[in-house]
Amino acid sequence: MNNIKGLFYLDGAPVAIEITGDRIGEIRRVESRESGEQVYIAPGFIDNQVNGYVSVGFTDPDLTVEKIKEATSNLWKVGVTTYLPTVITADRDRLLQNFAVLAEAMEQPAIRQSVPGFHLEGPYISPEDGYRGAHTRAHVRPPDWKEFQELNTAAGGHIIQVSLAPETTGALDFIRQCRQQGITVALAHHNAGTEIITRATDAGAAISTHLGNGCANTIHRHRNPLWGQLAEDRLMASLIVDGFHLTPEEVRTFYRVKGPDRIVLVSDMTQLAGMPPGEYSWDQKTVVLKEEGVILYPEQAVLAGAASPLVDCVGNMMRYTGCTLNEAVKMASANPARLNHLTDRGVLQTGHRADLILFTLEDGHLRIRETYIAGQQVYAASETAV
User: Fold this and answer.
1) Is residue 17 part of a domain?
2) Distance between CA 206 and CA 199 in Å, rounded?
3) How far, in Å, CA of 151 to CA of 157, rounded?
4) Residue 222 carries which DSSP code?
5) Which residues neighbour 25 within 8 Å (Cβ) at sequence distance 6 or greater?
């Protein structure tokens, strides 16, 4: 039995959390006479979209189990206790290869506890410039259920989310088949109008992937993919609130439309996150990681993924919208858990898995002090992750 004390993120009251085995046993209020830094307790972050981290890319040709383990332990340091490794548009052989490596990695308990499944973003997206983003045009193709079944077999049946363009040939039937299999479908990198968005949602689409991105730089003021997704109340929206992918006023507007219950904060980090600034070759493309933390793909004049961890997005969300710490944490924990049907985590509640983070707030920035998964400490700021 283990006890963890800190300020409960919900209302700032001091609490002690009793951990029994890998579960939260009891949460009780305690009297605090301690002075100094206020340490908050919250559920561990759940990142719905991680393309890679600190030189490890989940679509890279040299992906190994050891590299996945390395990326996972580095994510613990920034408060992420659960994440979806995201494999993006590539040729069939690469997708089969990397999903097989990811499936092998899940045989290791430490990885399996943090990875409930995988996210396939593409290749079933719009081929149009701008909407395609940094995805390689040569590998973009219409949804193919037979191919997807082969990919999911290679993945050990662990693909739990697919991001696609709903206007592509066969997409609506593909969405229906995913829903029948319990796979979450997200709308991404598309140029669909309101009618198609409505039909995709009727078919089972549940969320818009990185709303406001994967979108052309110049769009029609009335007929564009943003309004239909914002107006569709059944769609959640994932947002990259890293300070580069969306302006503060966009974030405020999206927040006011969707509210704290229908937003999922994501990092969309690539393997360049945590790396030194400079020019890099990635998937046969030249991309630039700027000193301020933005990744650019100059050839298409678009962003190429993100370089900021989810913890930064949580702090930015509070600053941009004025939402509470409770609401910002919810968008990075409870909401992605609900989206992906993860009923054992995402909230601090008796009987749930003891995935916890302890952190301080410094000028609106969250600083991770400790990370626990299933009741076991996997990171402490003064130590190295296990």
Assistant:
1) no
2) 12
3) 9
4) S
5) 1, 18, 19, 350
* 219 close to 152: Cβ distance less than 8 angstroms: no
- The distance from CA 87 to its chain's CA centroid, rounded to whole angstroms, is 12
SS3 343: coil
In this structure, which amino acid lies at residue 40? Y
The Cα-based distances of 81 to 7, 205, 266, 292, 348 in angstroms read 19, 26, 13, 26, 13
When mean pLDDT is compared across 188-197, 258-267, 273-282, 366-375, the lowest value belongs to 273-282
Global pTM exceeds 0.90? yes
**144 found inside a domain:** yes
Q: Are 145 and 159 in contact (CB under 8 A)?
A: no
Identify the domain containing residue 219 by its residue range.
43-346
- DSSP tag of 24: E
Q: Is residue 209 part of a domain?
A: yes
337: CATH: 3.20.20.140
Of 361, 371, 337, residue with least CA distance to 117: 337
Secondary structure (DSSP) of 268-336: -B-TTTTSPSEEEEETTEEEEE-TTSEEEETTTTEEEEE-S-HHHHHHHHHHHH---HHHHHHHTTHHH
Counting the structural domains of the chain, the total is: 1
What pLDDT digit, counting tens, does each position of 293-329 carry? 899 988 887 888 899 999 999 999 999 999 999 999 9
Helices (H), the chain: 65-76, 92-105, 109-114, 145-154, 171-180, 194-203, 225-231, 248-258, 310-321, 325-331, 334-339
- Which 3 state secondary structure label does DSSP give 4? strand
